[in-house]
Design goal:
Number of domains: 1
Radius of gyration: 13 Å
Number of strands: 6
Number of helices: 1
Strand content: over 45%
Structural class: alpha+beta
Largest sheet: 6 strands, antiparallel, barrel
Strand order of the largest sheet: 1-2-3-4-5-6
């Protein structure tokens, strides 16, 4: 799954994703992180409740400022990113 990205100009931490069917949804960028030389974005839907999980996307750059977010299809890659995210969050709580 590939998501097109549109940044909202009034808040750089909020982006609108458009899926393959043209449906738009706003997300807050919780953080970006680098795992093994690849950059990832952690996103949370704007209207998320406390029980909702964050989404993890691989960032694929198409030039200096243009990029796409791509769903991670490899289980090992996904687990590595989740582990890195959890480590960062655990360290912030200390």
């Amino acid at each position: 799954m590939i998501m097109e990205v549109f940044k909202l100009e009034n808040n750089e931490n909020i982006i609108t994703l458009v899926d393959e069917e043209g449906k738009e949804e706003d997300f807050e960028v919780i953080m970006t992180l680098d795992v093994e030389g690849q950059e990832y974005a952690i996103l949370l839907p704007i209207d998320a409740s406390d029980d909702d999980d964050a989404y993890i996307f691989k960032i694929i750059y198409e030039g200096e400022e243009d990029y796409m977010l791509v769903a991670i299809e490899d289980d090992e890659e996904y687990e590595n990113v989740v582990a890195a995210y959890e480590t960062i969050m655990d360290n912030e709580e200390l």
